[in-house]
Amino acid sequence: MEGENVVVEYRWGDNQIDRLPALAADLVFRRVAVIAAVTNTAALAAKAATATTPIVFLASDDPVRMGLVSNLASPDGNLTGMSFLAAELAAKRIELLRQLVPRISRVAVFVDPTNPTATESTLRDLGEAGRAMGLQVDVHNAADIGQIEQAFTSFARERPDALFVGSSPFFTDRRVQFALLAVLRKLPATYPWRDFAEVGGLMSYGASLRDAIRQVGFYTGRIIKGAKPADLKV
């Protein structure tokens, strides 16, 4: 119970990736019992900051490929956590979009260059699926509001048939912007999380972020009670 038997030290990166190493180092300096890191970049920053403080991560990519753990069933070191493999769902999402709108042949894809792990996985799997379906995939890097606006402005010239929004905490923060611009451009769009559909996005396919974060809390509580990260499979 927060305020009774546990104190939670909250740290916010505010979509500024370069702040995360200092925030993680501060938590280590304060000798916290466990660090909960709920984005890919936060998990990597926490891992770089300590080899002893337990870390519970929430990763949208393969934790082994990211270098967080070497084994999912028996994590070594001081890390364990949850992975919902959002990037690996790219092929399924484009397949569902094609079923919904069979006529599409050109897809505009948004990825966040500040989240290289998720971007690499998304483009790899989406590229393979797109080639198999005969789709042209146009990639747009967006790390701020202006770049999102610029990409949508370019659609008047490029004329994509559909929109694919990759996995990124920044994109989730800008979900209303994406949903509104897609409607204005009359673009059928697929998104990674339910949160986008709840604000007017056409469709989403992915894990429940709320449930995943709840599971991070469950693992964090077990570690506070004495469990070791190595005892908790990813």
Descriptive report:
By secondary structure, this protein is α/β, with parallel strands linked by helices. The chain has two domains: 17-84 and 209-231, Rossmann fold, CATH 3.40.50.2300; 87-204, Rossmann fold. The protein has ten helices and eight strands. It has helices at 20-29, 40-49, 63-66, 90-100, 116-133, 145-158, 169-173, 175-184, 194-198, 209-224; strands spanning 35-37, 55-59, 79-83, 106-111, 136-141, 162-165, 189-191, 203-204. Strands 5-4-6-7-8 form a five-stranded parallel beta sheet, sandwiched between helices. Strands 1-2-3 form a three-stranded parallel beta sheet, sandwiched between helices. Helix 4 (90-100) packs across helix 5 (116-133).
Secondary-structure topology with pairs:
Elements: H1 20-29, E1 35-37, H2 40-49, E2 55-59, H3 63-66, E3 79-83, H4 90-100, E4 106-111, H5 116-133, E5 136-141, H6 145-158, E6 162-165, H7 169-173, H8 175-184, E7 189-191, H9 194-198, E8 203-204, H10 209-224
Parallel strand pairs: 1-2, 2-3, 4-5, 4-6, 6-7, 7-8
Helix pairs in contact: 1-2, 4-5
